[in-house]
Amino acid sequence: MTSADDCIYPSDRLYLVEQDLWIKPLSDNVYRVGVVKPFLFFVGKPHKITVRQAGTLAKKNTMLAVLSNPRADAALLAPVDCYILETNQGLTPELLVKNPYEEGWLANIRVEEPLTKAVDSSAAAEKFAAINAERGVACLETLADYRFTVFGETCENILTQVGDFISRYLKVGESLHVITTDPATEVDMIAYAERTGHKLLEIKKIGKLLHVIYMRAV
Amino acid sequence: MIDIMTYANPSVLADVDWLKANLGKSGIAIIEVDYDPKLAYEQGHIPGALLIDWRKDMNKPDERDIIGPEEFEKLMSRLGVSNDTHVILYGDYNNWFATFAFWVFEMYGHKKVQILNGGRKKWIDSGGELTKEVPTPRPAVYKVEKVNYANRVFLDELLREKVGKADLVLVDVRSPAEFTGEITAPPEYPNEHAQRGGHIPGAINIPWGQAIREDGTFKSAEELKQLYASKGVTPEKDVVTYCRIGERASVTWFVLKHLLGYPRVRVYDGSWTEWGNLVRFPIERQR
Q1: Nearest-CA residue of chain A relative to B216?
Q2: A108 - beta bridge partners?
Q3: What is the gyration radius of the CA atoms in chain A, in angstroms?
Q4: N or C: which terminus of chain A carries fewer CB neighbours within 10 A?
Q5: pLDDT of residue B192
Q6: In the CATH scheme, what is the code of domain B155-275?
Q7: What is the pLDDT of residue A47?
Q8: Under an 8 A CB cutoff, do B183 and A169 touch?
Q9: What pLDDT is stored for residue B75 in this prediction?
Q10: Is B243 assigned a catalytic role?
Q11: Which residue ranges in chain B fall short of pLDDT 70?
Q12: Which residue in the list B49, B79, B185, B243 is annotated as catalytic?
């Protein structure tokens, strides 16, 4: 199921909207659990993932996992009391970003009470759409290394600031997610990449905001 | 725990384990101070914790200044904090904004206020409970008896005092790249810039994070003494800390003033976004 903000919620599993988690039943009371894709766009690229150790009990509302980067230590909470049976041993930030629904799973858990709030993918898409709008999140193909929200009186002003950001912070090969509103137009943003030699990875208008991803090439 | 006892003023720190054992106790207000509440407080906070949204609650809406005593009284009242409440502060970005708030609480004479050692990070990493439930405190009566500006320094004072005073030491606590002017803000929140990069002439660079351990807690008193003394920041000096907007400077202020007991330490909260925007002011870059 794909929602209006381009976020994907596979239909072969259930979702815990309040916790930003997906769950896939493995056997009675046992689930594989992972994080939904828009949460990654909310937190930004994680530099470190901490998953609660296997063999421990996660009380309701305590951490199952924490995604950390310089902006945040964002916690994912246990929906009910649950035992951590196994964690994803090979999990890396790259793997999580690549596919949070498959290789990027977090843990297998055994729940101590039924997950009555779990919903299917279409209900999840609808509920997450509202949350994503409130958080200012949209899903793109690339989860960039940096994010920059910029509003200017003129398009030139916006592009100047984008240029400053790229030259100040990005190494060659790193990417920047620019979130902006009018008066920047898609044409200007594309022309900017051609003029500067930076690679335009993605450009997408979602709601009132224009999302552009540049990769520093020079 | 043993380290804490060697600090000059250990009563300013609350320990995560102590707080876990004392959750829900009356007379205590736990307050999360965030720069980005959406990613932090709203995503799960210590049960019963209230929120101070640093940008909205600690700053005046129009002129650039921290809230005045009357606004502080209103804020405390709204949070259900009275003059006798034991306040424990913690927050995002390694307690930067919680420490800034501590500095403001002290300015307005709050009697019992502590920083949760290690902050949000340590609480989460140690498996502490979190909740998304937002408490609704009963408004309290709060009165600021006396304002104490001894820990704050403004630009004009800095200029007047600096001239011809060899014992004044300016500690720039930003990253080395900000100190040398390569960048003017950390990339995680780049929207608050100065026109020029660099540092105040004569300042020395001791990044705030050098006082912090991997787990987010403060280093031992011995380590801290060594760190600052080796750079010439010693107790007999008149110390001024600054960063970009004052938040990281308050962390180093807290360390020097309370953990090491230096008698005279002030935060220049105008910091680089003031100095680096002034016309015809000297700036140093490489050192």
Answers
A1: A73
A2: A32, A86
A3: 19
A4: C
A5: 66
A6: 3.40.250.10
A7: 94
A8: yes
A9: 98
A10: yes
A11: 1-5, 163-164, 189-192, 287
A12: B243
What pLDDT is recorded for position B234?
A: 96
Residue in B127, B130, B91, B86 with CA at minimum distance from that of residue B110: B86
What distance in Å separates the CA atoms of residue B11 and residue B4, rounded to the nearest whole number? 9
Q: Where are the domains of chain B?
A: 2-125, 155-275
pTM for this prediction: 0.89
Quote the pLDDT of residue B287: 64
Can you read off the two tokens belonging to residue A36?
Answer: 């939904």
pLDDT digits (tens, 9 = 90+) for A90-130: 999 999 999 999 999 999 999 999 999 999 999 999 999 99
Q: Do B186 and A73 touch (CB under 8 A)?
A: no
Dist CA A32 CA A146 (whole Å): 30
Q: pLDDT-derived band of residue A1, with 50, 70 and 90 as boundaries?
A: low
**Is residue A160 predicted with pLDDT exceeding 90?**
no
Q: What SS3 class is residue B223?
A: helix
DSSP, collapsed to helix, strand or coil, labels residue A204 as strand
Q: How many CB pairs under 8 A join A and B?
A: 63
Judging contacts by C-beta atoms under 8 Å, the chain A residues touching residue B184 are 168
Report the distance separating Cα A214 and Cα A202, nearest Å. Answer: 7
Out of A43, A61, A72, closest to residue B129 by CB: A61
Secondary structure element (H or E) that encloses residue B239, with its range: strand B238-242
Question: What confidence score (pLDDT) does residue A181 get?
Answer: 78
pLDDT of residue A16: 97
Chain B residues within 8 angstroms (CB to CB) of chain A = 36, 38-40, 43-44, 47, 92, 120-121, 124-125, 127-132, 182-184, 186-191
Chain A residues near residue B47 by CB distance under 8 angstroms? 61
In chain A the beta strands, taken as DSSP E runs, fall at: 14-16, 21-27, 30-35, 48-51, 57-58, 63-69, 72-77, 82-87, 107-111, 146-150, 175-180, 199-206, 209-215
Which residue from A72, A149, A169 is facing B40, i.e. has the nearest CB? A72
Q: In which band, very low, low, confident or very high, does the pLDDT at A4 lie, cut at 50, 70 and 90?
A: low
The answer to whether domain B2-125 and domain B155-275 are alike in fold is yes
The topology under which CATH files domain B2-125 is: Oxidized Rhodanese; domain 1 (3.40.250)
**Dihedral angle computed from the Cα positions of residues A108, A114, A118 and A119, in that order, rounded to the nearest 10 degrees:** 120
- Name residue, tokens 């606590």: B173
Domains annotated for chain A, with CATH where assigned, are 14-135 (2.40.50.100), 146-215 (3.30.110.40)
Closest CA to A29 of A111, A117, A120, A116: A111
First-last CA distance in chain A: 38
Residue, of A210 and B7, whose pLDDT is higher: B7
